[in-house]
Amino acid sequence: MSFQFNWHSFTEANFYSKARALLTEALNNGSMPPIIVDKVSVSDFDLGSTPPHLEILEIGDFSADSFHGIFKLNYAGDARLSLQTKIEANPLQVHYQSVPEFAGPRFLAASSSLTMPLILTLSEFRLNGIVVFVYSRAKGLTIVFPNDVLESIKVSSTFDFIPSIARYLQAEIENRLRLFFRDDFPIIMHKIS
């Protein structure tokens, strides 16, 4: 059994501005790698025109005040997310930040900082897995992914012309997205609800 989303209700400007703010906050929580020298901001966020497909696997509680359900999620849509920040492009500068001054030579010209803007666009999301929805009128919405739902994603950046960096960014972002769906997404959805 499955059901239809009213997907166009997610196109309200208020929803997107609040979601961008919460995503920006979540992306800047915790420590950043030394290569990222500025905060990460969400510059574009759009859920796209294609809704996910949810298949009902189990309904545990269904009343006017609460709901508990387990679903199979499948998404292959046109959502996109663009992020921007600044990175340290000089690897010696990043290295010198983690090494005490007495531990190695210092090359004056080579140790100068070189910050560059980085724009990342995530698109062509492919999600497939189990999702648990728990809704309580008093406590709000909780969404949990008990397994890894990310099948694939397309990562585009300002460094796509350098294949080794493009491969690194693809792998790193896939890993971070897996953590995001497991840890941060449930918190964001709870705050929005």
From TrEMBL:
InterPro entries in the record: MDM34 (IPR027536), MDM34_N (IPR058825), SMP_LBD (IPR031468)
Subcellular location per the Swiss-Prot or TrEMBL entry: Membrane
Start and end residues of each SMP-LTD domain: 1-193
Xref: CDD domains: SMP_Mdm34 (cd21673)
Residue intervals passing through the bilayer: none
Ranges in a coiled coil: none
A GO molecular-function descriptor: lipid binding
Gene Ontology cellular component terms for the protein in this record: ERMES complex
Any Gene Ontology biological process: phospholipid transport
Keywords: Lipid transport, Lipid-binding, Membrane, Mitochondrion, Mitochondrion outer membrane, Transmembrane, Transmembrane beta strand, Transport
Highest taxon of the lineage: Eukaryota
PANTHER family the record matches: MITOCHONDRIAL DISTRIBUTION AND MORPHOLOGY PROTEIN 34
Protein's name according to its UniProt entry: SMP-LTD domain-containing protein
Biological source species: Tortispora caseinolytica NRRL Y-17796
Native organism taxonomy: Eukaryota, Fungi, Dikarya, Ascomycota, Saccharomycotina
